[in-house]
Amino acid sequence: MKENEKEKETLDVEKKVVRRRSRQAETDDELALRQLRDAWRQISIDGQWFKRQIWLFVVIVAGIIVYITNRYGAQQEIIEEQTLREELQDWKFKSLTRNSELTFCTRQSQIELRLKSLGDSTIRVSNKAPYHIFTPNK
Questions:
Q1: Contact 119, 127 (CB under 8 A)
Q2: How far is CA 56 from its chain centroid?
Q3: What's the CA gap between 89 and 78, in Å, rounded?
Q4: Which parts of the chain register pLDDT below 50?
Q5: Where are the domains of the chain?
């Protein structure tokens, strides 16, 4: 009998421990849930807050839109500037080439060779030194 009583007592003690632990777990869960609710209430955003801050949201969205469009426009200008610079460089090289070709073709020796090849004998190299006519500066 004593053994039965001891077994009953140990079962009762174990049940009490289990109950206490479950109650403690419940209170811990309730405490955590209550803390979570309190934190949510502190940071909760209700409809009135949105109504008060609507103009701030409008300004932020407008600023973002202006920033994006300005960035797109600036990128397009940069691309156009690069293409114009490349085109200008190309035209400079072409101009330099034409200038050197013109200089080569207008040299006196080249003109004389061309005239001789065409058979024109009216133009000849002068044997006399050129005369310099000095005019007074005004």
A1: no
A2: 26
A3: 16
A4: none
A5: 10-116
